[in-house]
Amino acid sequence: MITKAEALGFSAMEAKGFCPFAPSVSITYDTVRYRSRDCSRATRSVARKPASLTYEQAAAVPVAGITASIALNKARVDKTASVFIAGGAGGAGTFTILLARQLGVRNLVTTAGNAKSRDYLIAHCGLSDDQIIDYKNGSFIEQAMQHNGGGFDVALDLVGGNMLSACCVLLALDGNLASITEAPG
Predict the structure, then answer these.
(1) Of 46, 68, 88, 93, which residue has the fewest beta carbons closer than 10 angstroms?
(2) How distant is the alpha carbon of residue 176 from its chain centre?
């Protein structure tokens, strides 16, 4: 048995009310319980696979989206917050940026380690070049602080390792930190 994972498949058993979509429609869902011969979903946990996504991309949506939502909630992000996101170009990072923007956050800075990630953040997340800091640059903490004019209200660590320590340094007094990784041991 696999618990709390994500899956992708084709709808079936529409007539029995198990799925709100017609048979053979591509769907993605969050699996709470899966056994090889029986997989039934509550209809609220089933969504049509977006046509613009590959099967691999669509299968990653539930956990990355939920992770981003929880991180923003735990850090108490609102539209007035200045937000630093370590790991913006990853799956959870992309969702975090997009959800933060939906909340009205405009003062947002994230990290990228290469030109491909930077280009992705600009093209798909609507960020400007000055909102993206190269974390491989030894002075990225100073660059982020300079961009923000001081510490951030919120720092979200989606990477772990040394980035968790960097997020702690980037916080303003009484700032909120959320990390999706284990604390260093």
Answers:
(1) 46
(2) 17
For 37, residues 6+ apart whose C-beta sits below 8 A from its C-beta are none
Of all residues in the chain, what percent carry a pLDDT higher than 90? 56
Domain hosting 22: range is 5-49
The reported pTM is 0.74
Question: Are 123 and 160 members of one domain?
Answer: yes
Edge-first strand order for the sheet with 132-134 is 132-134, 107-112, 82-86, 152-157, 171-179
Amino acid identity for residue 63 in this structure = V
Q: Could you tell me which residue, 104 or 56, shows the higher pLDDT? A: 104
The answer on 94 and 11 residing in a single domain is no
Domain CATH code at residue 77: 3.40.50.720
